[in-house]
UniProtKB/TrEMBL annotation:
Entry protein name: Legumain prodomain domain-containing protein
Species of provenance: Flemingia macrophylla
Domain Legumain prodomain: 367-463
GO term, biological process aspect, one: proteolysis
Signal sequence segment: 1-19
Family named by the database record: Belongs to the peptidase C13 family.
Length: 480
């Protein structure tokens, strides 16, 4: 063989290796293939987007999902590869000042137009969510029938936004979603060999508890959460904060972690930005100066996947191809944010404050506010009393708030947890989105050996009556 072509090739390779990494992206395809994996466009990107709430006061969750859908479509994902779960009671809600329009930021465009109605209303449930992940059409009950029908070389992105609590995530109807069940579904998906890698972004209070001590390495899954296992996540673009929604809006438009990753994705070249780079930027913005209006974004699973480019999962908007990544967050956090669990009260209060004196709207808003507060007091007082009845005054209070060391799962026996919650709700009414904050107490009861019969007796004594409010309806609870 002629030595000249070999020498020329070696010299060319050395020149390319010494070039800046950004230059690789602009090399002719014949040269760049020496340094990059095979073209990822040949693998299919799949996504599941799910808002687990309903009610206008939870506007932000469906707004988040709609924004995510628009982002993925601009990134090049096909509609048939994006599965959307949302109750769909926001866009045309009588409270919405712009009928048929949903916005995710104060000056944002409509993100609702074109979003497919794959699973709406009561079809947004745990069973259908799991079936969609597993690609199991025969397990579906209602909806469009769309599932993640992925193959071994494909990449999957799952984004969930809603209320949560230790070890649990909300749904518009019962039952709610338990962490142990979600992890089993992810393990089953991995065992089926139907994906190459999976990324899970999770917005919820105590969302770290969904994966902490539960998601093993080796599943080719990388997850980030809005909060650690013991803190709230936060709504943003809320009435009374800066930046605030347009004055006609009486609800939060988005969630802090969610708008952080989406607004970052909207402006960057996702062909060059990695999951890790986005994680760092989102963490910085969501902690919000380490003040009282922020949470700690966490990561779990196969952390090495975070070196992958976001392009693998989200695609990339061609309009951003010339963006040069700057390792600094140009997106300013809000002056303050609203605890996820208090966002409904913010809505009811703002509605009450703005309504004319003596109007039916003011009367309705006052009723909604009082009912929500009554439910909260009932749940909090009932849980305190149950703790005292089971363990005595001092030990009961201590056990209710006890937190396991970081890295341990919430509870040893998840079936016990489900049983104690169902038993409590039978006697005391639904925990609802607010009552999810008490899941750690139920887990502590299980870890201390409390049985169903003991919980039933204590709950019956603690709850001689249940407030006659929509919040206490078991339709909003964990029971199945």
């Amino acid at each position: 063989m002629d030595r000249f072509p070999i020498v020329f090739l070696i010299a060319t390779l050395l020149t390319l290796v010494s070039a800046a990494r950004d230059d690789f992206l602009r090399l002719p395809s014949e040269a760049s293939r020496f340094f990059q994996p095979p073209a990822t466009d040949q693998a299919t990107r799949w996504a599941i987007l799910i808002a687990g709430s309903n009610g206008y006061w939870n506007y932000r969750h469906q707004s988040d999902v709609c924004h995510a859908y628009q982002l993925l479509r601009k990134g090049g994902l096909k509609e048939e590869n994006i599965v959307v779960f949302m109750y769909d009671d926001i866009a045309f809600n009588e409270e919405n000042p712009r009928p048929g329009v949903i916005i995710n930021s104060p000056h944002g465009n409509d993100v609702y137009e074109g979003v497919p109605k794959d699973y709406v209303g009561d079809d947004v449930n745990v069973n259908n969510f799991f079936a969609a992940i597993l690609g199991n059409k025969s397990a579906l009950t209602g909806g469009s029938g769309k599932v993640v029908d992925s193959g071994p070389n494909d990449h999957i992105f799952i984004y969930y936004t809603d209320h949560g609590g230790p070890g649990v995530l909300g749904m518009p109807t019962s039952p709610y979603l338990y962490a142990s069940d979600l992890i089993e579904v992810l393990k089953k998906k991995h065992a089926s060999g139907t994906y190459k890698s999976l990324v899970f972004y999770l917005e919820a209070c105590e969302s770290g508890s969904i994966f902490e001590g539960l998601l093993p390495e080796g599943l080719n899954i990388y997850a980030t959460t809005a909060a650690n296992a013991k803190e709230s996540s936060w709504g943003t673009y809320c009435p009374g904060e800066y930046p605030s929604p347009p004055p006609e809006y009486e609800t939060c438009l988005g969630d802090l972690y969610s708008v952080s990753w989406m607004e970052d994705s909207d402006m960057h070249n996702l062909r060059t930005e990695t999951l890790h780079q986005q994680y760092e930027l989102v963490k910085q913005r969501t902690i919000n100066g380490n003040g009282m209006y922020g949470s700690h974004v966490m990561q779990f699973g196969d952390i090495e996947l975070s070196m992958n480019n976001l392009f693998l999962y989200l695609g990339s908007n061609p309009a951003n191809d010339n963006f040069t990544f700057v390792d600094k967050n140009s997106l300013v956090p809000p002056s303050k944010a609203v605890n996820q669990r208090d966002a409904d009260l913010v809505h009811f209060w703002d509605k009450f404050r703005k309504a004319p004196v003596g109007s039916s709207r003011k009367i309705v808003a006052e009723k909604q506010l009082l009912e929500a507060m009554s439910h909260r007091m009932h749940i909090d007082d009932s849980m305190k009393l149950v703790g005292k009845l089971l363990f005595g005054i001092e030990k009961g209070s201590e056990l209710l708030s006890s937190i396991r060391p970081a890295g341990q799962p919430l509870v040893d026996d998840w079936d016990c947890l489900k049983t104690l919650v169902r038993t409590f709700e039978t006697h005391c009414g639904s925990l609802s989105q607010y009552g999810m904050k008490h899941m750690r107490s139920f887990a502590n009861f299980c870890n201390a050996g409390i049985q169903k019969e003991q919980m039933a007796e204590a709950s019956a004594q603690a709850c001689v009556s249940i407030p006659a409010t929509p919040w206490s309806s078991l339709h909003r609870g964990f029971s199945a």
